[in-house]
Design goal:
This protein is α/β, with parallel strands linked by helices. It has one domain: TIM Barrel (Alpha-Beta Barrel), CATH 3.20.20.70. The protein has twelve helices and eight strands. The chain has an eight-stranded parallel β-barrel, surrounded by five helices. Helix 3 links the parallel strand 3 and strand 4. Helix 1 runs parallel beside helix 2 and helix 7 crosses helix 9. The protein is globular. The structure holds 2-phosphoglycolic acid.
Length: 257
């Protein structure tokens, strides 16, 4: 982490879990367990039907409301989709873009990721851009090439001032939901690489202000070590964010360096 130049962000990704009726209770428990002093920016990226309840429950708190996906088009005949202005209307501040599960199961490409990033920035919503290599790519020593490609595609056509507003999440696919976390050295190496690509494309001032998160089996046991790395500015947390007490411990870990 480097608090001097960038935001520390702990974001929960509930994926397709939880129920709208359980949101209030979750937030009460989280607020009860969370450290009272300001440590980091906290975001909960929840399924669409839970956004109104989350918004209500987090009013007067420092928990920001996030979504897990959005459609890049403004409006129209896209049955089943949710637009950016709908999320904006609900005061959503962050949206996950290009999560590996969406790339794998729902045909999200680097080009749709780019379109979503642009439209979100235009609406003043922060995209959390997910990148990460598969196990095969790591074993074939293609991690850095793959990550470079994903980052360049996601940020294509953006002005430096827009890139500054983005958040990147490095999530090695082999570490997601597997209990197999990347070592802090592996995660740092890739996060440092991501910052270097941004530096090359948009300059040092932009690169040093982009928050880069790690995601993939992060929990209260390994978070302090991951967060002690210079280029890891927070976490995108799946499984461990479903338990408010556990999520609060990860938030607390941002204070341990
Ligand atoms: P995990 O998921 O923490 O359950 O591995 C992280 C993510 O997919 O964002």
């Amino acid at each position: 982490m480097n608090r001097k130049y960038r935001k520390v962000i702990i974001a929960g990704n509930w994926k397709m879990n939880m129920l709208p009726s359980k949101v209030k209770r979750y937030v009460e428990e989280l607020r009860g367990a969370m450290p009272k002093f300001k440590t980091c920016n906290i975001v909960l990226c929840v399924p669409f039907p839970m956004i109104p309840n989350l918004r209500k429950a987090t009013r007067d708190s420092r928990i920001a409301v996030g979504a897990q996906n959005v459609n890049e088009h403004e409006k129209g005949a896209y049955t089943g989709e949710v637009s950016i202005s709908m999320l904006e209307d609900l005061n959503v501040k962050y949206v996950i873009v290009g999560h590996s599960e969406r790339r794998q199961y729902f045909g999200e490409t680097d080009f749709t990721v780019n379109a979503k990033v642009k439209s979100l920035l235009d609406a003043g919503i922060v995209p959390i851009i997910c990148v990460g290599e598969s196990l095969e790519q790591r074993e074939f020593d293609l991690t850095m090439e793959h990550i470079s490609y994903q980052i360049k595609a996601a940020l294509h056509g953006l002005a430096p001032e827009q890139v500054r507003k983005c958040v990147v999440a490095y999530e090695p696919i082999w570490a997601i939901g597997t209990g197999r976390t990347a070592t802090s050295e592996q995660a740092q190496e890739v996060c440092e690489h991501i910052r270097a690509i941004i530096r090359r494309g948009y300059g040092a001032r932009v690169a040093r202000s982009v928050s880069i998160l790690y995601g993939g089996s992060m929990n209260s046991q390994n978070s302090a070590e991951l967060l002690s790395m210079p280029d890891i500015d927070g976490g995108l947390i799946g499984g461990a964010s479903l338990d408010p007490a556990e999520f609060a411990r990860i938030i607390e870990a941002t204070d341990q360096e």
